[in-house]
Amino acid sequence: MDLLQSLANEFAVSTDKMNEVAQNFKKAIENGLKGGKSPLLMMPSYIGKPSGEESGTFLAVDMGGTNVRVAKFSIKDRKITKIAEVSSGLRSNDGTWDYTTSKTTAEELFDFFAGKIAQIVGPGEKYLLGHTFSFPTKQTDINTATLLMWMKEISVTGAVGKNPNQLLLEALKRKKLDVKPCAIINDTVGTLLVAACQYADADIGTILGTGHNTCYAEPSHPVTGKPMIVNMESANFDWELPFTEYDNLLDAASNKPGGARLEKMVSGVYLGELVRIILSRLASQGSLLKDNSKLKSTYSEKNSLPSKEVSEFIRNRNYIELTFDCSPKEAEMIQNISAMVIKRGARLAAGTYIGTVLHIDPELRNQHMVAVDGSIYEKMTGFKEELRRGLDEALGNKADKIRAQLVKDGSGAGAAVAAAMVTEN
Ligand code: GLC
User: In angstroms, what is the C-alpha Rg of the chain?
Assistant: First the structure.
């Protein structure tokens, strides 16, 4: 068998496999809800779907990875309007400062956020603030969460075990701002909240971006007996996933070996790295890139191949020839390898969405909208299409019951919706 064919076999996710992922995921949801053994954290969010009556002007902080955004939104009649926004990377381009490493303390990080908030709050103004904080937290109410661990290769000191909204409140006080955090949510939850303002059938929120995770509206939550959105932290799902030797290499070299195994197959922080590992391994075995000098000079470091480039590899074979100084045949091979990694990610995600819907509606009687945000879904060449194709194949004649739809800025606007929901009660 030729190399490409054997790689294609390793990376293939058949229709049966997608359905198996769906069943395993559903089982993981059900075990997790009962507090049983599950790779899904199944975190209660202490918030349900919006009523549509929410109104007012609120601040939002969106901290999800290597960027922070602060914004002001007005909400009325289910319409959410952005009035102001400031965003910033957490690292400078020239490497002079970096708020993501263990050299930064939690106080320094939250002071940085408060500094951004100060830019959109006028003198004497008073606001409530919703905070989208997209890392695993254990919540005990809508405004109290404990950071369990950093993800997405962030490692700021002194934040794990603390409530990010308390840290934010203290930083706001240091800046003498009259702004009170009143809600903390995950970005998946924000995406679902924003979608639910407009679409009655939205019951799943998911991020396919730097990271990956999914939440859904549990019709009757065991803790409260009421509807509640559950943040599954599904990055960690790992039951019977089709790991290859390349996934294992990536995992072993990551900040968190053994963790976030699904995320390592579908999300932006890892997809480029996975392609890099495959190419480097094949080149070192002599099966690809006979002249590997460009690969060595540009892509020898961990994380040196961004997912954005993978998107370009799939779109444009000439770009590959230029990037690697390789033959058209080798470029074709690299293009195919990139496409199969992306296709696999999309089909695994599809399996988890089907599993979630089957938990809510085992006979697929109703319509379900999966609200999706994130750069992988939005921009990765072929991802959306493969996801849809995966859903169609696995669902057969029920395929029209599940639709995935891009909902932009759920994490920003969703925080404002959450703040509005708190004040409504
Ligand atoms: C990571 C975080 C999760 C977040 C996801 C998408 O998996 O743990 O909380 O929702 O990334 O940003």
Answer: 22
In a domain? residue 46: no
CA distance 151 to 26: 24
Q: Where are the alpha helices (DSSP H) in 37-186?
A: 106-118, 164-174
Residue of 153, 184, 186, 267 to mutate, ligand 1, most atoms within 8 A of C-beta: 186
Same domain, 269 and 139: no
Q: Is the CB of 190 under 6 A from ligand 1?
A: no
User: Cα(73)–Cα(193) distance, rounded to whole angstroms?
Assistant: 14
Range(s) of the domain holding residue 29: 3-41+202-406
Average pLDDT over residues 257-266: 97
Whether the CB-CB separation of 207 and 213 falls below 8 Å is answered with yes
Residue 280, CB-side half-sphere exposure with 13 Å CA sphere: 21
Q: How many domains does the chain have?
A: 2
Which residues touch 136 (CB under 8 Å, ≥6 apart)?
41, 43, 147, 148, 149, 151, 233
User: Which among 216, 227, 220 is positioned nearest to 368, based on CA atoms?
Assistant: 216
State whether 266 and 372 are in the same domain: yes
Instruction: Give the residue, out of 151, 230, 232, with the most ligand 1 atoms within 8 A of its beta carbon, to mutate for a pocket test.
Output: 151
Q: What is the mean pLDDT of residues 31-51?
A: 96
Same domain, 108 and 232: no
pTM metric for this prediction:
0.95
pLDDT tens by residue, 66-121 = 889 999 999 999 999 999 999 999 998 888 999 999 999 999 999 999 999 999 99
Q: Which atom of ligand 1 is nearest to the CA of 215?
A: 10
